[in-house]
Structure formats: C-alpha cells, structure tokens
Amino acid sequence: MAKKIFGYGDFYCWKCGKNIEKNHDKCPFCGAFYDKFETAEAKGAGGVGWSNQVHHPSFKAWHNRNKKVFQICMIIFSLIIGVILFIIPGELDFDAEGLKIYGGVLAIVWTIDLVWYYFNNKSRKDWEGIVDSKEFEEYTRKVKDDKGTHVEYHTRFIVNFRKDDGSIEKLTEIDSPSWYNYLNEGSRVRYHGQKGMNYYEKYDKSHDEIIPCAGCGSGRDARENFCGRCGCIILKAE
Ligand SMILES: [Zn+2]
Ligand SMILES: [Zn+2]
Any idea where the domains of the chain sit in the sequence? Predict the structure, then answer.
C-alpha cells in the first residue's frame, strides 16, 4: 500500500506512461526499453507548438496521489506530536487537560497545513504572453542562531512576462533558478493554472533537450512521452 502511494520502487514507462516495477529493462506493457529512445536526438523532440494534453488523466491521477501522501504525512505528523507531548516526561499528562492541549496544538498545525495546501493547489487563471526580461539580484539576510548572528547570501531570480492583455506578471525563484534557466527572453509562453499545475509551457520547445514535467516538476529528457518519475504526460507539440 505505502509502496503504491509513495511510488517507492516503481517508475513509469517513458513511452506508454504505465506504472512498472523496477528491475525490468523493458516495459511489460508496450515493450519499450527503459532509457533507450527511438529517436536519436533529444534536441528537437519537444517540437514547435502547444500541447493539447493539458487535461490528460495522468495529471489528475498524480494530483490525487499527492493528496493521499499529504493526508498520510499529516496523520503521521500528528501522531509524532502526540508522542512528543505525552510520552516525553515532564510534558503533558494523559488526562482531560492534556488531551485538550493536544487537540489545540493539532488544530493549529492542521489549519496552517490546510491553508498551505490550498494555496499550493488552487486553480489559477490561464494566460498567454512572452518572456519580456529576466533579471537576478543578490541579497543578504541576517540570521540569528545559537552561535550568534551571521549573514546568509541569497539570489532572487526573476522572470518578467508580458501577457497578451498588456499586463506584467512576475515569477520569482529564490536560489534555484529552474524556470529562469528554462525560459528565454522572447519565449512565447502559455501559463497553465489548473489545480496543482502552475506550469509555464514554452511554444517553441525545439531547442530544448530537457522539458520540465508539468506534474512533479522534474526535468525530463525531451524524448520521453511520459515522466518516468510521476507518470504525467510530457507537454510537447503535437
Ligand atoms: Zn510502456
Ligand atoms: Zn513528473
């Protein structure tokens, strides 16, 4: 059960997208060899044009699996809080008063996590536009810990889009510039805001060897039809 939900020990066929057990060198469903592609070049495999697979059922399946993982993690986390509060001596006694405090702590933790989950998975409006400019800025932050105050160095990577309606949209990444590296100035982009997707599809993918997965976000070989990690279809030109 846990293995199925967490995907541990499994991966997905790059060609047909079916969930397969590890230790196969060949997909038992479609016969494709894992890690061997029919077309020789990754570059160009993404093609030029929009994908019409944005509503493919693999995204919904991935989203539901994610939700299950989130729920299981929350239950385990709540139990751990219980263990810390009741078992470690000097914390809470297992009586009505103790249970009330435990309930209060859980209510706060669950509220924060549900709000976080809501904002990460709510649907946003789709739009089209171009990458107007890219910029980055370095900044420092003072951090206090038990060794005293020290300075942390960070970089903010910003992609500015000009939407077709004329408005500007800003995308900011801290320290890990994945969209910043993938998107070029002048790239035509379609933003997919459906539940949990939050994805910037490039119109011209023909120069990319790596295309980000619209499900799990990992960078995929442009020859893959499906993400080997999460099973979502890769958004490529038709
Ligand atoms: Zn297959
Ligand atoms: Zn994926």
Answer: 63-121
